[in-house]
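Quick one, tokens below:
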């Protein structure tokens, strides 16, 4: 009996996707086979679930079993793709078997390259982000040739319970990733720095951290739910000769806008580079 889902590279992101699905009961632990480079890396997010999953090391021949699962999630680093290519080239494909669906979350690696490495699979690119752990993620999807309706539904059944799902033309995925998948790291830096500022201004650390997170969450909720343009929200807060405009003057002098713009552009460029 093949596993329902085979995960090649059960690292941080694959665990972030799998954990809420296990919590919800979308998959049972015994339906999942994960392959990793180092077994010790599994636990970071999965915690106690890690004891009930089938997990094998990538240098174990049994790991080829993963390639028999009807759904396969490829979640190694783009730099590790050549090792996988080597493994797949040794597979003995049963003639006329239905093609399994391979969901790649690798930054930058395009469908053309995936299909050349996995000619016996139907390939999909998925670009998720780490808030999937708390079922508040975003996932961009681009379908490769040949993906069946049932396979589309299976892929959506993985990502819809944990994220908003957008179907995008493949050429937009690098920019999508640069904003949404890398974005939680930018937000984390901003959250930490704002809390540092509040500590410098006299608040205790744990209160400063909590207030920083709540300010970001509340502002994001307001922007999303009110459809306010960000500039309108800024103007609503900044009183003439007040505290906010004094702070904003400093942020503008420090180049906050161009720093963020360039950060996203550079991340998109790096995604394209990693895919080659
Ligand atoms: N971390 C994030 O927020 C996001 C990551 N991604 C993409 O997800 C992928 C994985 O990223 P992370 O989870 O952060 O990296 P990671 O390093 O935590 O996970 C990679 C996993 O692959 C395993 N591995 C290495 N070689 C292997 C092999 N030959 N066979 C099987 N497993 C092998 C490693 O042991 C590790 O567990 C990357 O391609 C990245 O571009 C995409 C969106 C967001
Ligand atoms: O930093 C990275 O390369 C991965 C892809 C998007 C988020 N993390």
């Amino acid at each position: 009996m093949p596993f329902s889902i085979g995960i090649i590279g059960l690292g941080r992101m694959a665990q972030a996707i799998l954990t809420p699905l296990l919590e919800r009961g979308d998959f049972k632990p015994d339906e999942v086979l994960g392959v990793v480079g180092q077994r010790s890396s599994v636990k970071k997010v999965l915690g106690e679930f890690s004891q009930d999953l089938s997990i094998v090391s990538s240098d174990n021949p049994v790991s080829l079993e993963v390639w028999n699962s009807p759904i396969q999630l490829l979640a190694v680093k783009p730099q590790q793709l050549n090792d996988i290519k080597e493994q797949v080239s040794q597979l003995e494909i049963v003639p006329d078997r239905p093609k399994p669906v391979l969901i790649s979350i690798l930054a930058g690696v395009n469908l053309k390259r995936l299909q050349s490495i996995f000619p016996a699979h139907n390939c999909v690119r998925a670009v998720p982000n780490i808030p999937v752990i708390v079922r508040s993620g975003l996932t961009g999807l681009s379908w490769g040739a040949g993906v069946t309706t049932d396979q589309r539904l299976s892929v959506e059944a993985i990502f819809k319970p944990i994220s908003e799902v957008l179907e995008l033309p493949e050429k937009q995925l690098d920019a999508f990733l640069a904003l949404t998948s890398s974005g939680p790291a930018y937000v984390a830096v901003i959250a930490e720095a704002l809390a540092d500022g509040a500590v410098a201004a006299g608040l205790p650390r744990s209160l400063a951290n909590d207030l920083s997170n709540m300010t970001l969450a509340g502002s994001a909720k307001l922007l999303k739910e009110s459809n306010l343009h960000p500039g309108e929200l800024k103007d609503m807060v900044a009183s003439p000769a007040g505290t906010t405009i004094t702070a904003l003057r400093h942020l503008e002098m420090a180049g906050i806008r161009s720093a963020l713009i360039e950060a996203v552009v550079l991340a998109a460029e790096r995604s394209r580079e990693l895919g080659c």
